[in-house]
Amino acid sequence: MTDFLSSDLYSIDEKGRLSFPAKILKMLPTKTKRRFTVLRAWDGQPCLRIYTEEGWKAVANQIKSRVNPFVEKEQMFMRVIFGRAIELELDGAMRLSIPRALLDLAGIEKQTLLVGVSDHIELWNPEQYHKVHQQIIDNISAIAQEVMGGSRA
User: Fold this and answer.
1) Largest CA distance in the chain
2) End-to-end CA distance of the chain, in Å?
3) What distance in Å separates the CA atoms of residue 129 and residue 17, rounded to the nearest whole number?
4) 71 Cβ contact partners less than 8 Å away, ≥ 6 residues apart
5) What is the pLDDT, as a whole number, of residue 31?
6) 59 lies in which domain range?
7) Is residue 112 domain-resident?
8) Does 134 reside within a domain?
9) pTM, 2 dp
10) Each residue's pLDDT tens digit, 121-134
């Protein structure tokens, strides 16, 4: 599985196309078909998540293995996640054409911040990202302790 790292600012053209950065392309497995799944983040953050074909299969399988289709709330969750996900493929110029409706959900216009988040890439409106990021940085010690645990076993 690919581990995406780092963050950089990139342009989105008037047709919603993002030229996939060479450094991201180098991170992709050579056998990849250059197919991706794109969807709005489900954690309430105003960003888009981009998964490789392999990465999306792992996430989708994890979701399906944990969700009970007979529980209404869980079925609604699946509807939102899978109903909003779209498959996209890089064109010959290594551009990803992202539908305007998805870009609008994340408030992305002419520029986007690509943020590597291990198994996926996030696309953010740069101003929105910096606001959210600053809140995290201001509390990173407490967050790290909560996420990673305060004591060693």
Assistant:
1) 53
2) 29
3) 20
4) none
5) 64
6) 7-125
7) yes
8) no
9) 0.86
10) 999 999 999 988 88
